[in-house]
Write a structure and sequence with these properties.
This protein is mostly beta strands. It is built from no helices and 11 strands.
């Protein structure tokens, strides 16, 4: 089970940190990701971090602004979002998968477990 939190209303240029805490399973073995879905749009990949190596991958749209991290002792991942833009407005979902195959972990279909989503709204 995944529980996401930290969303809110911010202004363009501000920062926000999302958290996602997992319960059950061996957290450190899972690849953990963040996806987002804007109104009327499909869910899109944001970032992911492998459990075994902590290697991070980012969508081009957030590279250099967002940072994913994990604390295995707390079964938690974080998404630090800096220099937020209005186009970052979306519901953000955390997700977990047991796979670490690079060709699949950017796809939402690879993830077995999903959090409930947390809304991030960035005003201009």
């Amino acid at each position: 089970q995944l529980q996401a939190s930290g969303g809110g209303l911010v202004q363009a240029g501000d920062s926000l940190r999302l958290s996602c805490t997992a319960s059950g399973g061996t957290f450190s073995r899972y690849t953990m990701g963040w996806f987002r879905q804007a109104p009327g749009q499909e869910r899109e990949f944001v970032t992911t971090i492998r459990g075994s190596s902590n290697i991070e991958y980012y969508a081009d749209s957030v590279k250099g602004r967002f940072t994913i991290s994990r604390d295995n002792a707390k079964n938690t991942i974080y998404l630090q979002m800096n220099s937020l833009k209005p186009e970052d407005t979306a519901v953000y979902y955390c997700a977990a998968t047991s796979t670490a195959i690079l060709s699949t972990i950017r796809k939402s279909t690879a993830y077995n477990y999903w959090g409930q989503g947390t809304l991030v709204t960035v005003s201009s």
